[in-house]
UniProtKB/TrEMBL annotation, chains A, B:
It comes from the Bacteria. The lineage of its organism: Bacteria, Pseudomonadati, Pseudomonadota, Gammaproteobacteria, Methylococcales. It comes from Methylomagnum ishizawai. The active site is at 168. This is 3-hydroxyisobutyrate dehydrogenase. SUPFAM superfamilies: 6-phosphogluconate dehydrogenase C-terminal domain-like, NAD(P)-binding Rossmann-fold domains. PANTHER family: 3-HYDROXYISOBUTYRATE DEHYDROGENASE-LIKE 1, MITOCHONDRIAL-RELATED (PTHR43060). Residues 162-281 form the 3-hydroxyisobutyrate dehydrogenase-like NAD-binding domain. The keyword Oxidoreductase applies.
Length: 286, 286
């Protein structure tokens, strides 16, 4: 099986490298051509001239872009080259409705589609320890499994098309709440005069232990907010989640509070920082 | 070194067992005598007639009770038997001011005091994998370390007397926020029709991963709220934390929201359940 990768951003470039390391990667494409050319050179794979050209030369197309419109634009751009039986795997975080629309267009060409959003941060992408939430047919997942296993350590079939994205929405809502929990607590710790390194060490080992504290606690308390996961992207995800919740007749008050905090931070020019920049609104004045 | 243990509740009984297993435990005492007699029989240690009698026969007294007033009452009750040089280690979760008051009374007798609250839940107490946050003199901690190491896997010196409790306060605030984050997200997942077992499995492996989801997610989504950590106790802790924050001129909005949710649950008779009973307020109607 020969795979092609579209979208070589912070996450995508690491995932493409891991596919290459396992011998699966044949071609890459990126909206900014220089990025694709550099990575193609590094990995010794083809740099496709277009998504359609990439699709025409591989058995599986993996997509990792930022927004719903980007996913549908990429699908439309690769369709002219897409051959029956090709796997199209969308690793982006988008709405379930977008996943279903993408799947429809792909299946009209006799190809197969999985929504397979990931979690685990840049670290997980780099170390191939992502958790991957898959929606689509079980036999399609089995064909895709060697590729997904090259990028992640936990691959779970959540159900039909769109259910991978539904699980990812839950994940993003939980991340939003944990960001509030960790930043509120650490700011309290700073005000209490605690040694923040020791505090993070001991709290990580107990019932409040979490990935975000472990990975972002040490940096946020040093005023380092390098992404990681860009705040403006999480903001976009939370808007999708809130719309999904509204359709279900429910609300996500903690996510909404986080989304509103993100808007204050974006207005102040912090949208390109890591989501842990929420700490800016909580910490004692510097 | 021969240790005595006061307070054989859900956490204390496990900690006493782990001390006994390492050969440190000489005596126990409990407010309900039958509990102490049963555990003393099980472990082959003395069942002291009073805290003072226990203190008179050991080199280290460990205390694990529920509230600030209980700690000070236990200190007063053991003082008549307390010999100079004895270690008094309070494992309870109380305010920093209570820790300082207890330390003063103990030091007046020429004995030494550590505040050493723990986190890691009943599981951590059972498996001796607690994280222990220690306040007090460094050399006192070094004397106590073999005892603490018998009960926990992470022992961190946070600073002077009271700083262990300050770290624990941060821990409790973080737990309060994580409870909101996990319950909001899982309730959203139920409404989306996701398989909750698979959802918890995949989300646990990524950037939203946390102890509480891992340990309490599978039970709360089955409407099982056996403690664990009693909701009414966390409520008590959060009131202490809010008072500490107010003294510092700050607020803990997410903790306050959780404390208020707990009050609704306590009014409905759920105070003796695990803190994950917060899910009752979030999940879809059954």
């Amino acid at each position: 099986m020969r795979a092609g990768f579209i979208g070589l951003g912070a996450m995508g470039a690491h995932m493409a490298r891991n596919l290459a390391q396992q011998g699966w990667l044949g071609a890459v494409w990126n909206r900014t051509p220089a990025t694709a050319q550099a990575l193609a050179g590094e990995l010794g794979v083809a740099c496709a001239a277009s998504p359609a050209e990439l699709a025409a030369t591989v058995d599986a197309v993996l997509i990792c872009v930022s927004a719903d419109a980007d996913v549908l634009a990429m699908i439309d751009a690769l369709l002219p080259g897409l051959r029956p039986g090709t796997l199209v795997i969308d690793l982006s975080t988008v709405g379930s409705a977008t996943a279903r629309a993408a799947a429809r267009r792909v299946r009209e060409r006799g190809a197969d589609f999985l929504d397979a959003p990931v979690t685990g941060g840049v670290e997980g992408a780099r170390n191939a320890t992502l958790a991957i939430m898959v929606g689509g047919a079980a036999d399609t997942l089995e064909r895709a499994r060697p590729l997904l296993a090259a990028m992640g350590s936990r691959v779970v079939h959540m159900g039909d098309t769109g259910m991978g994205q539904a699980a990812k929405a839950v994940n993003q809502v939980m991340c939003a709440g944990i960001n509030q929990a960790v930043t509120e607590a650490l700011a309290f710790g700073e005000r209490l005069g605690l040694d923040m390194g020791k505090l993070i060490e001991v709290v990580s080992g107990g019932a409040a232990g979490n990935w975000f504290l472990d990975k972002r606690g040490p940096t946020m308390t040093q005023d380092v907010f390098r992404p990681g996961f860009k705040l403006a992207l999480h903001h976009k995800d939370l808007k999708i989640c809130e719309a999904m919740a509204e359709d279900l007749g429910t609300a996500l008050p903690l996510s909404t509070a986080t989304r509103q905090d993100y808007e204050r931070l974006m207005a102040a020019g912090h949208g390109e920082e890591d989501i842990s920049a929420l700490y800016r609104l909580k910490r004692p004045a510097r």
